[in-house]
């Protein structure tokens, strides 16, 4: 009997020793969680060189490891929404309008590992993915709206060519070429209207020298712009109706931030894709750190513990405060 009790005692001690330490509890809607989320969002947008900037919609989960000599480590899960600002736009993400559900919004899911030292956050690992909203949600918000079309659809490519040619034929002195297509929808009862959004880039040619061999300007001379337009094939007519609005952005000096490695922007290649997935972005060199953030948050989401207002484990009759997930900002 004594031997049995001794064995049980040793098992309990071993379990206590190997129990994973838990840091302090942080509310997903707290200012500290918001600071961590905005630091992560800034990092993600600075390294997402395709499509559109993202905005914060919700802090879904957050866990903090015990503080060490190097500060604290935060594991944060974020729900993001695509904005209407192309990634080349100088408009800060916080000032960008969110893509409404009626336009088939794109949602991003990111798991981020950050380090906090002296009150400042630094991103040390990111894992992201994104997807368009479901057709059911789109039609619930707008029964007559149209879904996203593949970015490499032939009708989409034609509409972009027509819109960009019209822009180049304007008062520009520089020849601009296509950098990437951002979004597209094929509309109308006979699929006769194509709505497109795309990014263009200045080249080393004038518009009179427009050739396929013209090279996009890079570095300090790089200059981008974006267009939103539609091309409609009129019934019974050979002519097309064009409506396009474009904006050219002033060359932007890259922001120097040691925590954000600058990744050169490269034209994207899409094969039947409907949007530019965050999964394909160059979000930093810490792939192992990204995996650890994803595994850590996955572990805690499966073994969540209710906690009381004082931060201790809550009993069955204790009123608990919902620390996470946080409130949704948009939808």
UniProtKB/TrEMBL annotation:
The keyword Aminoacyl-tRNA synthetase does not apply. GO terms for molecular function: cysteine-type endopeptidase inhibitor activity; endopeptidase inhibitor activity. One of its GO terms (cellular component) is extracellular region. Residues 18-129, 140-247 form the Cystatin fetuin-A-type domain. Keywords: Disulfide bond, Glycoprotein, Repeat, Secreted, Signal. It is found in: Secreted. Its main location: secreted. Transmembrane segments: none annotated. Pfam families: Cystatin. GO terms for biological process: acute-phase response; negative regulation of bone mineralization; regulation of inflammatory response. Residues 1-16 form the signal peptide. The keyword Signal applies. PANTHER family: ALPHA-2-HS-GLYCOPROTEIN, FETUIN. This is Alpha-2-HS-glycoprotein. It comes from Xenopus tropicalis.
């Amino acid at each position: 009997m004594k031997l049995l009790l001794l064995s049980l005692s040793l098992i309990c001690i071993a379990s206590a020793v190997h129990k994973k330490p838990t840091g302090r509890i942080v509310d997903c809607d707290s200012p500290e969680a918001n600071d961590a989320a905005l630091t992560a969002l800034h990092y993600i947008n600075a390294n997402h060189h395709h499509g559109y900037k993202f905005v914060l919609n919700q802090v879904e989960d957050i866990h903090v490891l015990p503080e060490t000599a190097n500060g604290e480590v935060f594991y944060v899960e974020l729900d993001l929404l695509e904005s209407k600002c192309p990634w080349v736009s100088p408009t800060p993400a916080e000032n960008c309008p969110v893509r409404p559900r009626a336009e088939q919004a794109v949602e991003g899911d990111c798991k981020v590992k950050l380090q906090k030292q002296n009150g400042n956050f630094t991103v040390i690992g990111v894992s992201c993915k994104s997807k368009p909203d479901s057709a059911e949600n789109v039609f619930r918000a707008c029964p007559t709206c149209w879904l996203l079309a593949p970015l490499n659809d032939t009708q989409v490519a034609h509409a972009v060519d027509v819109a960009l040619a019209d822009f180049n034929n304007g008062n520009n002195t520089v020849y601009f070429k296509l950098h990437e297509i951002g979004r597209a929808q094929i509309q109308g009862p006979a699929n006769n209207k194509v709505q497109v959004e795309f990014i263009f880039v200045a080249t080393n040619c004038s518009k009179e020298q427009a050739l396929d061999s013209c090279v996009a300007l890079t570095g300090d001379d790089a200059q981008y712009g974006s267009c939103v337009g539609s091309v409609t094939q009129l019934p019974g007519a050979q002519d097309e109706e064009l409506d396009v609005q474009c904006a050219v952005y002033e060359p932007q000096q890259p922001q120097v931030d040691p925590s954000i490695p600058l990744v050169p922007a490269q034209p994207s290649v899409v094969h039947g894709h409907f949007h530019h997935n965050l999964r394909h972005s160059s979000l930093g060199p810490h792939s192992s750190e990204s995996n650890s953030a994803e595994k850590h948050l996955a572990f805690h989401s499966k073994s969540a513990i209710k906690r009381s207002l004082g931060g201790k484990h809550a009993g069955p009759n204790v009123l608990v405060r919902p620390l996470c997930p946080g409130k949704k900002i948009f939808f």
